[in-house]
């Protein structure tokens, strides 16, 4: 067990004004899925990218947009989004946005395994 406030946010280098907390990763002994919280400050963005794994998102706070394969979705607190594998996607924050993001462990960087 741990408390969310004990886990620091780390800057996401390939994004603008974006930070991540790794809640669970293989380092914690979880066998299948990892959990992260992203914070994107107002005006910040995660540029378009894709990867061979899915992820599920729950918006905890704030408003922004997510673009998946060229289609934009306005998101706010309480919205949930599924992003399929290999789909180009990006994020933009109108105001500071926090979202929970789950991925399979195969998508976790080697330093967190």
Topology:
Elements: E1 10-11, E2 16-24, E3 33-49, E4 55-61, E5 63-68, E6 71-76, E7 80-83, E8 89-93, E9 97-104
Antiparallel strand pairs: 1-2, 2-3, 3-8, 3-9, 4-7, 4-9, 5-6, 5-8
What do these coordinates show?
The structure is a single chain. The chain has 113 residues and is mostly beta strands. It has one domain: Jelly Rolls, CATH 2.60.120. It is 0% helix and 57% strand. Strands 1, 2, 3, 4, 5, 6, 7, 8 and 9 form a nine-stranded antiparallel sheet that branches. Strand 5 and strand 6 form a beta hairpin. The radius of gyration is 13 Å and the shape is globular. The two termini are 18 Å apart. The mean pLDDT is 97.
Brief account:
The chain is mainly beta and 113 residues long.
Features:
9-stranded antiparallel sheet, 113 residues, Jelly Rolls, mainly beta, 9 strands
User: Average pLDDT value?
Assistant: 97
Order of helices and strands: EEEEEEEEE
What is the CATH superfamily?
Jelly Rolls
- Beta content comes to over 45%
Tell me, briefly, the overall form: globular
Structural class: mainly beta
Span between N and C termini? 18 Å
Q: What would CATH call the class?
A: Mainly Beta
Alpha carbon gyration radius? 13 Å
Unreliable residue runs: none
- Counted up, domains total 1
**CATH architectural name:** Sandwich
Count of strand segments:
9
How would a textbook summarize the main sheet?
9 strands, antiparallel
What is the overall number of helices? 0
Q: What is the fold named in CATH at topology level?
A: Jelly Rolls
The share of residues in helices is: under 10%
